[in-house]
Amino acid sequence: MTTRHIAHLDMDAFYASVELLRYPELRGQPVVIGGGRNATPETLPDGSRRFVRLRDYAGRGVVTTSTYEARAFGVFSAMGMMKAAQLAPDAILLPTDFDSYRHYSRLFKAAVATFTSQIENRGIDEIYIDLTDLPGDPAETAARIKQAVRDATALSCSISVAPNKLLAKIGSELDKPDGLTILTEADIPLRIWPLAVRKVNGIGPKATEKLASIGIETVGDLARADPELLQATFGRSYSAWLVEVAQGVDERPVVVSSEPKSMSRETTFERDLHPRQDRSTLSAAFTDLCTRVADDLRRKGYEGRTVGIKLRYNDFSTVTRDLTVPAPTADATEIRRAATECLRRVPLDRRLRLLGVRVTALVPAGSYIAGSVAVQGELPFSAD
User: Fold this and answer.
1) Same-domain check for residues 56 and 204
2) Beta strands in the chain (DSSP E)
3) Domain extent at residue 210
4) Which residue is catalytic, options 126, 266, 303, 334?
5) Is the pTM of this model over 0.70?
6) Per-residue pLDDT tens over the stretch 227-263
């Protein structure tokens, strides 16, 4: 049986790195991306620039991303901006510029496409690459891909080559930034098992807590765990998946091209949020999710006719609601209006640990004349 060589390429702090190309004087400083137009730097008469500091921010926005220096203060994406200001008040605040991020995304993906067409897009800043059938040593090929990306964008990326997507995804985080990591099955006990279980894509904060409650902190602990205990704690399906991932098993192929059935964004909060007491934080996160889904739709050339939400409560129960709108849309405002209608149909009396927004029933953009969704009344998570 042929050993697969699957690479996961992840651009390093992508949005922030693009901004540092524009503002090289900020290299080495804590920088947070996510401000509005009022965060645009001011050019002074002498040609220098005056930057907005995070401590001066006032509003209910969320962090889009941050540099590694800001992350050292605990500032990460999807965090409320006001909380980030408490952690890193002297950090530089910059506005988002999705047009630039999409431009550099196209550049790096085009550079990789000169090596192979076996590429699976996973977002604006990451892809999987199947190197199995390419001639030469996979590690050397990965190094050449890294250099090609740098030549095309002046940005660094981290690549891991492994037998499957699961290990490649984990591996690309091990040596960031600018990492090149090669993993084999023999490396699982040495490099994967010592990791915290939360490092496995698909094991979220709540599952991490439940695993800790039964004495499982690392992937190695999970690999040695009693399958019956896992099943009693998580149920048959999820526990079976946990057993496989702990051993590094993943048979998923690299999906080169497919028509998407839906596009969605969701976020798991650092703490459970109450719909009333934490309304401003939830509202900002809700708006951000709608904006990101709309951006994904426009970037990939789709519109959708059904808008949905996903809520996960603090007891881990999950509810979803959907609304079909008059005509397909990729407009963030219309998506938010429809998603708000969905929110009105779910109980908002318990704390939430996860919030998600999705758009389904996709069609190519322009296939229909987009309509509008008229919604009256106050929004459950109003950001206005």
Assistant:
1) no
2) 6-11, 31-35, 42-43, 49-50, 52-53, 65-66, 92-95, 119-121, 126-130, 157-162, 180-182, 262-273, 302-313, 318-329, 352-364
3) 193-246
4) 126
5) no
6) 999 999 999 999 999 999 999 999 999 988 666 788 9
